[in-house]
Amino acid sequence: MEISRRDFMHIAAIFGLGAATSGMASPKTIEQISLKDIYDFKAMGNFTLLHMCDIHAHIKPLYWREPSTLISAPNLVGTPGFLCGEAFAKHYGLEPSSLDAYFDTYIDFDILAKKFGKMGGVAHIKTYLDHVRKERGKENVLFLDSGDTWQGTGVALKTQGEAIVKAQNYLGVDVMVGHWEFTYGKERVKELIEMLKAKFISQNVIGDDSFADDYEELIFEPYTIEERGGAKIGIIGQSFPFTSTANPKEFTEGWSFGLRLDTLQEYVNELKKEHKVDCVVVLSHDGFSVDQEVARQVHGIDFILSGHTHDPSPKPIVIDGTVIVIAGSHGKFIGRLDINAKGGKVLGYEYKLVPIASNMIPADPEGVKLVEELYTPFAKEFNEVLGKTKNTLYKRDTFFSTFDQLINDAIMDEMKCDISFTPGYRWGTTVLAGEDILMDNVYEMCGITYPNVYTFELKGGKIATLLEDIADNVFNANPLYQQGGDMSRLGGVTYSISVANKAGTRISKLMIGGKPIDLEKTYIVSSWGGNLQNAGENLQKEKIRAVYDITRDYIKRQKVVNVSNKGNVTLVDYDCGCPTKGSRGC
Amino acid sequence: MKRRDFFKKLGTVVAISAVAPMMSFGADEKKAKGPNELSYEKALEAITNGKGAKPSAKVHLKVPEIAENGAVVPVSVEVDSPMTEQDYVKTIHIFATKNNNSRCLAVHFTPANGKAMLATRVKLGSTQDIAAIVEMSDGTFLSASQSVKVTIGGCG
Predict the structure, then answer these.
(1) Can you give the pTM of this predicted structure?
(2) Which residue does chain A place closest to B67, by CA atoms?
(3) Which of A429, A471, A575, B133 could serve as a FRET partner for A171 with CA atoms 20 to 30 Å apart?
């Protein structure tokens, strides 16, 4: 059923009141849910923290399908951070076909997308933020951003992040940390921070060039103290600890990252003892599972506002007295955290993960205007229709997703390689079945500052070792040794994987081009978005080209793309993509 | 203690970084082994005279979980000790347990050092444990170890 926004607001006006007064616990359909339900919150305490993370430069509303496979080591599967689909719905008690089910899981995504429409967008986010600011009083609200904000769309890439900084200034972000921000390079990061009205903080970025003035010094302020509602709030920044291994080192040469839990503990103590803050917050891009480990090892943190792993977590988790929240990705959610803190103590809190349903939360006209201004210079290129897709194209899942497969198909078609590697990062877009694919969508999938596809030679044995290495970054049983991404996506390859096996022994039945891998044979490999080319030989320099250009040309040649969701990986130790805790199945 | 404070203090203790060249080869495990090859097990046996070392919370080994660059992995060790004539740390050994030559360095202390600590950088050929073996003045050996992942990365 298609409902225009005007129809909806009309319906909401009729049903909204009814829904609220009848005390309906979980609204089911668009006819029954209203703006009031979305806004509904039991306000408490003396101030509110609003939180967003990983919007990946999506200043316009989009479709974003959550994963249908989210596998990890057996001790982690089915726990917050490794929950998806049916297991997620069960864990959080979601009603099927509800707005929350649509926002939080992949189940019936295509059908519900038609019903509920697009998600996020800064104009809609702003309306919600202003609603809270009005309700609570502006002076009692702080808006925190866990990073992965400046990068992820065409408009971000073309303006080297500037468009997104403008959007953040419009939204009124107060404090942020970073990860993909750093892929614009150190100098550009500093320029953008100049334009940014928010504070950029990080206790875990330290100079490590022994010839530089900042050797062993902090690159950013480690923390900030803000006053809201009469409370002193200490906020410590934690940027992505593995930036220099997950992304090319050249962007952050001379800066060292890492978790740095010993200094984190020192700053927590300093804020409490010297500055007598009422509440200690860590604004983090560590990832949801790593932050659970941080809470175990560092004492005295009241709240961790997490990011990086893109988990929508409807409920906070509490570990050793530290409350951890994370607010999904792509601008789909804003986390609202009301806190009562005084006398150096947190006395209570209330949390809600608020879905930014763009068909229900009206757009702020100023935001609509801003987005239009930012997109206009690139409208011609971005709006070009490249082709259509037969099936839904999405990104996410542990091993395989359709949009990644399309990119691998494009690379293999052009490069005539045996194997194609596409990175397993978790941002991108979703294009619904039957819809046009725009150039803007291609940038949403692969608009990075190091887009080159490299084609080179690798021995079979090396390929096998590399795959095991990547698998251990994803499936290590200790979250501190994970990098928070998914497996690299492979074209031309099929394999089986036993996730629970020891490092170096997870992958079996590795086939290349339908034949068992020959460890002595040299294969032609194409790869982008990683460091793999550094491990290869005989780089074919004349073939180097940007991945978004390769993908665009391929879709144009195909006109209609038809990528099935069958996948190329056999999971040995689980029966489904979204297992529940302690089991093989769902 | 802050890192920069640490380096300031280091000047008054033992200037380790300067005197500790990278002794480990960090070569690919599959390559032919060089003349200085020595496994961790053999080295440990030689140093402790077959006694072995006891894991101890007194040995504070600090290494990253994931190396930003396997060629220069920062390692620091501090041992709780009164550093008196009666009770002091004699030697701290650092091992890269899977490098062909697992010995990275050995630093000797006397009570005059006041504090038993050192910081250096080591080269790792692959993901492995880094171990600190500490010889105490009473002839006992303490140890601490932690895994360091050396990865090509690329997950984003």
Answers:
(1) 0.89
(2) A245
(3) A429
Distance between CA A363 and CA A234 in Å, rounded? 33
Query: Does residue A492 carry a pLDDT above 60?
Result: yes
Contact B62 A262 (CB under 8 A): yes
Rounded to whole angstroms, how far apart are CA atoms A425 and A395?
A: 9
Q: What is the DSSP string of A545-578?
A: EEHHHHHHHHHHHHSEE---S--SEEESS-SSSS
Per the structure, the count of domains in chain B is 1
Residue A208 tokens, joined: 């490590």
E strands, A254-319, are 255-256, 279-284, 303-306, 317-319
Tell me the CATH number at B15: 2.60.40.2470
Asked whether residue B122 is domain-assigned, the answer is yes
pLDDT reading at B22 higher than 70: no
Question: Closest Cα partner for A106 from A490, A578, A583, A571?
Answer: A578
- H-helix segments, A314-398: 365-375, 379-382
Residue A33: band (very low, low, confident or very high) from pLDDT cuts 50, 70, 90: confident
Cα separations in angstroms, B137 against A153, A416, B57, B81, B119: 62, 66, 18, 10, 21
Write out chain B residues lying below 8 Å of A425, CB-based. 155-156
For chain A, the distance separating the N- and C-terminal CA atoms, rounded to the nearest angstrom, is 30
Question: Could you tell me the residue range of the domain that residue B99 belongs to?
Answer: 3-24+36-148
Q: Which residues of B touch A309 (CB under 8 A)?
A: none
Residue A574 tokens read as 């689980």
pLDDT at B38: 87
Both structure tokens of A63 = 């479709």
Q: How confident is the model at residue B20 (pLDDT cuts 50, 70, 90)?
A: very low
Which candidate from B66, B127, B147 shows the least CB-CB separation from A245? B66
For an interface test with B, which of A148, A242, A250, A262 has the most B Cβ atoms less than 10 Å from its Cβ?
A: A242
Contact list, A488 vs chain B (CB under 8 Å) = 154-155
pLDDT of residue B33: 59
In a domain, B155, yes or no: no
Domains and CATH numbers, chain A: 1-40 (no CATH), 41-62+118-371 (3.60.21.10), 383-571 (3.90.780.10)
Residues in A touching B68 (Cβ below 8 Å)? 244-245, 249, 256-258
Q: Alpha helices of chain B — where are they, by DSSP H?
A: 3-12, 16-19, 40-48
Interchain CB distance below 8 Å, B151 and A488: no
For residue A243, the chain B residue with the least C-alpha distance is: B156
User: ipTM beyond 0.85?
Assistant: no
> Is the confidence at residue B155, as pLDDT, over 80?
no
Q: Given an 8 Å threshold on Cβ–Cβ distance, is A469 in contact with B66?
A: no
Average pLDDT over every residue of A309-335: 97
